[in-house]
Amino acid sequence: MSEIRFNVLDQAFDIFAQCVASLNTIQYINSVNLLNAFNLSGVRMKAIQEERMKGYFLTAAKELIRGEGLAVVSTRNVAERAGYSYATMYNYFKDIRDLIFSCVEDFMAECREFVAKEVPSALSGEKALIAISSSYTKFFVQYPGIFDLFFQEKASKISTAKSNVNAIDALFDSLVEQRWKTIVDRKKNTQGASSQAQEFHKLALHGILLFYLNNRTTHSYKALMNQVSEVTQVAIRAL
User: Fold this and answer.
1) Which helix (H) or strand (E) holds 239?
2) What is d(CA 174, CA 176) in angstroms, rounded to the nearest whole number?
3) 78 domain-assigned
4) CA within 20 to 30 Å of 207's CA: 46, 121, 197, 198, which one?
5) In angstroms, what CA-CA distances link 1 with 10, 12, 91, 224?
6) How far apart are the two ends of the chain, measured CA to CA in Å?
């Protein structure tokens, strides 16, 4: 009888030990999961903090470019406007050119958004192309400092070796590409003339802007916009 009792007790202790082991395992797993969650949260918080700090310097640089042009953009001026020491900036940007090209990328995105809001989505073909060209022109008339940054500064001054400078040249192309395709598809025998017409349109438009923004013409703003429309129509007729 006592032997049976001891066997039952042994089994009970074994079951109890297994339960304790299971509880310890669960606690261990929970602890590991909690630690991983804290680590992940810490990584996310660090990333958020880094983006926030970069944003301060980026906003300061963009404000300087919009207001006074690239000439006043220096490490010290940007840092002072951002409210931090200039040494802090180097924790987030390789150098001043890295920061400037980040501004370029932001400005390109702003230009796309500006055009998208200005041009009715219902427009197509020639009317859409004229509307996009006019809106694009309007953006740079409002922000001449951005035009200078994009098209009058040397690439070596506004970018690093890793910067995609060609994106600046491709900006206008990306805005009008689909509209040109629609126009070309409606016409026949335009294979050779298409690329020439588009190139003429692009160069003429930027030339008009260059003269206007540098006060090399007596045209009013209204006359400027009429000229943009006329140049666009001339390019289309060249197909």
Assistant:
1) none
2) 6
3) yes
4) 121
5) 14, 17, 78, 111
6) 109
Considering the domain architecture, whether residues 72 and 176 belong to the same structural domain is answered as no
Residue 9 to residue 149: CA distance in whole angstroms: 85
Orientation of helix 221-237 relative to helix 191-213, angle to 10°: 170
In a domain, 183, yes or no: yes
Residue 59 and residue 22 in one domain? yes
Q: Return the structure tokens found at 208.
A: 């008009």
Instruction: Give yes or no for a contact between 163 and 101, defined as CB atoms under 8 angstroms apart.
Output: yes
CB distance 194 to 180 below 8 Å: yes
Distances (CA, A) of 152 to 43, 65, 70, 96, 207: 41, 13, 11, 18, 12
Cβ–Cβ under 8 Å, residues 99 and 57: yes
On whether residue 89 sits in a domain, the answer given is no
- For CA atoms 57, 63, 66, 68, the dihedral sign is negative
Indicate the residue type of 185: D
User: Domain limits at 107?
Assistant: 96-237
Cβ pair 132, 176 in contact under 8 A: yes
Q: pLDDT in tens for each of the 239 residues of the chain?
A: 444 444 544 554 454 445 544 545 555 555 556 445 555 565 677 678 888 889 999 999 999 999 889 999 999 999 999 999 989 999 999 999 999 999 999 999 999 999 999 999 889 899 999 999 999 999 999 999 999 999 999 999 999 999 999 999 999 999 999 999 999 888 775 667 889 999 999 999 999 999 999 998 888 999 999 999 999 999 999 88
179 neighbors 128 (Cβ within 8 angstroms): yes
